[in-house]
Amino acid sequence: MKKRFFxxxxxxxxxxxxxxxxxxxxxxxxxxxxxxxxxxxxxxxKFACNVSEDLIKETADALVSTGMxxxxxxxxxxxxxxxxxxxxxxxxxxxxxxxxxxMKALADYVHSKGLKFGLYSDAGTATCQKRxxxxxxxxxxxxxxxxxxxxxxxxxxxNTDGQxxxxxxxxxxxxxxxxxxxxxxxxxxxxSTQPWLWAPGVxxxxxxxxxxxxxxxxxxxxxxMGVIHIIDLQTELHPYAGPGxxxxxxxxxxGNGKMTTAEYRTHFSFWCLLAAPLMAGNDLRNxxxxxxxILTNKEVIAVDQDPLGMQGxxxxxxxxxxxxxxxxxxxxxxxxxxxxxxxxxxxSVTWEQMGMAPGxxxxxxxxxxxxxxxxxxxRITRTVExxxxxxxxxxx
Length: 396
Ligand code: GAL
Description:
This protein has eleven helices and 18 strands. The protein has helices at residues 2-31, 44-47, 53-65, 68-71, 102-112, 138-148, 165-179, 227-232, 261-273, 289-295, 298-304; strands at residues 39-42, 75-77, 83-86, 92-94, 116-122, 152-156, 184-187, 205-207, 246-248, 278-280, 313-318, 321-327, 333-339, 345-350, 362-366, 371-376, 379-384, 388-395. The strands form four sheets. It has an eight-stranded parallel sheet with strand order 9-8-7-6-5-2-1-10. The protein has a six-stranded antiparallel sheet with strand order 11-12-13-18-15-16, with helices on one face. The radius of gyration is 23 Å and the shape is globular. The model is unreliable at 1-28 (pLDDT under 50). Beta-D-galactopyranose is lined by residues 44, 79-80, 127-129, 156, 158, 188, 211.
C-alpha cells in the first residue's frame, strides 16, 4: 500500500513534467521559425490557379539546378486552387486530377530535394478562388497539414464576413502549434487591420498591402498595385519587423516580364533593404540570365538575411531622388540610392544620414556592380538610372 502511495504521485509528476517540457520544446521550436525573412517560391504570381503536381516537382528541381536553393530559397508554396472539397468527415480534399499522387507524396518529393513545403488556405468559408476555406475546420486542417509534412501555411482573408482578423488568425496559429509540427505562419489580410500592431506572436509574417502587380506604378480598382506604390506604403513600418516576425510587402514579380531589368533590380533591392520575405513568383524553369542574376545576388540577399533583422527606412527624400538605409550587423549599413524619375540623376548619401560621424573612413562596395569603390569619409555620390537604384554596403 505504502509503495503504491509513493508510485502514483511520482508517475503523475513525471507526466506533468514531460508534458510541460514538450510544450516548452514546441514553443521554442515555434519561436525559432523565420529568424531571418523566409525565402522560397510561391505559385500565385505566375501560375494563379494553374497549379499541378508536375509544376511543383519541376519547380523543386529548378530551385536546385538554378542555384536558387544555394542562394537561400527554401520554401516551395502552392497558393490557391490546390483544394477542391471536403469529404464526409470534413477533411480537406486536394484536386486529384492536378495532384494525382496526393499532398503527402508531393511534400516527400519536395523534402527529398532538401526543400520545405507550403500550402495556402483562408480564414473564411471559402478561399479567394472559391475553394473550401478553413473556418470551423482549423484544428482538423492544421492536423492534416502536419500529417502531410507541411512547413509553411499562407492564410488568406476572403469570405470572412463578420470575422475578426486578430481572433481568426490566433485560432489558426494555436491550431498549428497544437498540431505539433513547426509551420511558418504567413498572415494575408492585405494590411487591412494593421497586422503589424497585433500579429507578432501570432504569425511569422504579415502582408502589409493589397496584391502586387507586375508593373512599376499601375493600380487596380480592386486594390492590386505596382512596386512603387508598395514601396511607398512601407515607409512607416520599420519599427515592427524583427527576427521571427516580418512585414510582408508581397511576393516577388522579378522575371515575370512586364518591368524593365532596372525596375526588377529596384524591386528586389527594396525587398532586401526592407527585410521582406523573398518569395520568388516567376517560372524558375525558364529564367533569363538577367532574372537569375537578380534573384541569386548573394550580397544583396545577405542584406535581407542580416542577423540583426532590422527593416530599412527612408532617410532622405528630394522628390524624384531618395536615400534608404538598413543597419547591418558589424556596424555596417546597406544603402539604396534611388531615382524614381525618368532621367538619370546624381544621388548622395551622407554619413550623418546613416547615424555615422562625419570624417569616419568607411569602405564602400557597390552590390550590383560587385565592386569595391574604395574608402570614403563623409559622403558618396553616384549617378542613378531612371527607376533604378545603386545599392551600397558601407563598412566603417
Ligand atoms: C489574394 C492574395 C494573393 C493570392 C490570391 C489567391 O487574396 O493576396 O496573394 O493568394 O488571394 O486567390
